[in-house]
Design goal:
By secondary structure, this protein is of the alpha/beta class. The protein has helices at about 20-30, 40-55, 70-85, 105-135, 155-175, 195-200, 205-210, 220-230, and strands spanning about 10-15, 35-40, 60, 90, 140-145, 180-190, 245. Helices cover about 45% and strands about 15% of the residues. Helix 1 (about 20-30) crosses helix 8 (about 220-230) and helix 3 packs parallel to helix 4 (about 105-135).
Length: about 250
């Protein structure tokens, strides 16, 4: 369908060597985009890019740490060298190294999580906005979380960073809307990925979470890809500043 066609578009997807990011990158490639796979480890990125090319898609791999602005600058530069100006940016990479009370959170961990989960998104958005402004068209997507919309005594700091992503999204959407640039968030619930393993690997905890979710199950990475494709394509061209929740109904309970 033409509404979801990304032919000719150039997309950067961070955290795309596995999980949600990989599913999004593969969906974009299938829709015709030229995709840049990025995460910390070059070898893992190479494997995903090769798998996309084996299926007839176009992809390259550029490793980058999201906490390092110089590496993100290199990521965008190499994308332009290989494919041209950036049309779509998905800031999916994040960290969650702390479980527990905010009362016991160290300054170092607070700063580290804010840099990785929020500031890096702003850095990347600032880096690609000239390309999008020149075309008066572009889509920026932040992977937030339902943790940014609720509270938690277990992953509270992660939720703080994801709430900040939602606020960042709204403000950039307001600033850059006149330039034809859309900025949106996707807020996943609990998805079966290595990143979230600590939240579901205990059978009792998983059963409780599934019982509390209207669809009575956890999500799969591929189920986030459709929302990203909507926001990246013509189908979502009048959507900006929004947060799409993909959580099996957990947040309505």
């Amino acid at each position: 369908m033409k509404l979801f066609n990304l032919a000719g578009k150039v997309a950067i997807v961070t955290g795309s060597s596995r999980g949600i990011g990989r599913a999004i990158a593969e969906a974009f490639a299938e829709a015709g985009a030229r995709v840049v796979i990025s995460s910390r480890h070059q070898e893992a990125c190479d494997e995903v890019a090769a798998a996309i090319r084996d299926k007839g898609g176009e992809a390259i791999a550029v490793a980058a740490r999201i906490s390092d602005k110089a590496q993100l600058e290199r990521l965008v530069e190499q994308t332009r060298e290989a494919f041209g100006p950036v049309d779509i940016l998905v800031c999916n990479a994040a960290i969650n190294p702390y479980y527990g009370s905010l009362e016991n959170l160290s300054d170092q961990l607070f700063e580290r999580m804010m840099t990785n989960n929020v500031l890096s998104d702003l850095w990347l958005a600032q880096l690609v906005v000239p390309d999008m402004r020149a075309k008066r068209d572009g889509s920026i997507i932040f992977t937030s979380s339902i943790g940014g919309l609720t509270s938690s005594t277990v992953i509270g700091m992660y939720g703080v960073t994801k709430a900040a992503d939602i606020a960042l999204c709204r403000n950039l959407a307001a600033e850059w809307g006149p330039d034809g640039i859309r900025v949106n968030c996707i807020a996943p619930g609990l998805i079966v990925t290595d990143f979230a393993r600590a939240l579901y690997e205990d059978p009792e905890r998983r059963a409780k979470r599934e019982a509390e979710t209207p669809l009575r199950r956890l999500g799969e990475p591929e189920e986030l890809a459709g929302a990203a494709l909507l926001l990246a394509s013509r189908a979502g061209s009048f959507i900006t500043g929004q947060t799409i929740i993909v959580d099996g109904g957990r947040s309505i309970v």
